[in-house]
Amino acid sequence: LVGMEKEQSEYEEKQNKAEGLLQELRHLKIKVEELENERNQYEWKLKATKAEIAQLQEQLALKDAEIERLQSQLSRTSSYTEVA
Amino acid sequence: LVGMEKEQSEYEEKQNKAEGLLQELRHLKIKVEELENERNQYEWKLKATKAEIAQLQEQLALKDAEIERLQSQLSRTSSYTEVA
C-alpha cells in the first residue's frame, strides 16, 4: 500500500506543480496584455505631446515675426519723430 | 510490452508538454521584462516632452508680454506723432 500511496502523492505533487505552472502562465499572459495596452496608450500620448510641441513652436515663430514687425515699425516712427 | 510502450509514450508526451510550458513561461517572462523596460523609457520620454511643453508655454507668455509692450510703445509714439 505504501508504494501506492507514494505513487499517489508523487502524482498529486506533479499535478500541483503543473497547475502552478499553468496558473503562472495565465497570470503572465494577462500581465503581457496589460503592458501592451499601456504601451499603446503611451505611444498615443507621446504622439499627442509631440504634436502639441510642434504647434507651440509654430506659435512662437509667429510671435517672433510679430515682434520683428512691431520693432521695425517702432524704429520707423521713432526715426520719423526725431526728424519731425 | 505494448502497455509499457504506451506508458512510455504517455510519459514522454507529458514531459514534452511540461517542457513546452516551461519554454513558454521563460519566453513570457522575457517579454514582460522587455515591456516593462519599454514602459520606463516611455515614462521618461513623456516627462521630457511635458517639460518641453511647459518651457515653450513660458516662452510664449514672454513673447506675448513683449508684443504688448511694443504695441503700447507704438501707440504712444504714433499718438505723439499725430499731436506733433
Describe this entry's structure for a reader.
Two copies of one chain form a homodimer. Chain A is 98% helix and 0% strand. Chain A has 84 residues and is mainly alpha-helical. The A-B interface holds A 18, 21-22, 24-25, 28-29, 31-32, 35-36, 38-39, 42-43, 45-46, 49-50, 52-53, 56-57, 59-60, 63-64, 66-67, 70-71, 73-74, 77-78, 80-81, 84 and B 18, 21-22, 24-25, 28-29, 31-32, 35-36, 38-39, 42-43, 45-46, 49-50, 52-53, 56-57, 59-60, 63-64, 66-67, 70-71, 73-74, 77-78, 80-81, 84.
Global morphology of chain A: rod-shaped
Mean pLDDT of chain A: 90
Radius of gyration of chain A: 36 Å
Give, in order, the helices and strands of chain A. H
How many DSSP H or I helices of chain A?
1
Strand content of chain A: under 5%
Low-confidence stretches of chain A: none
- Largest interface, counted with CB-CB under 8 A? A-B, 38 and 38 residues
Oligomer: homodimer
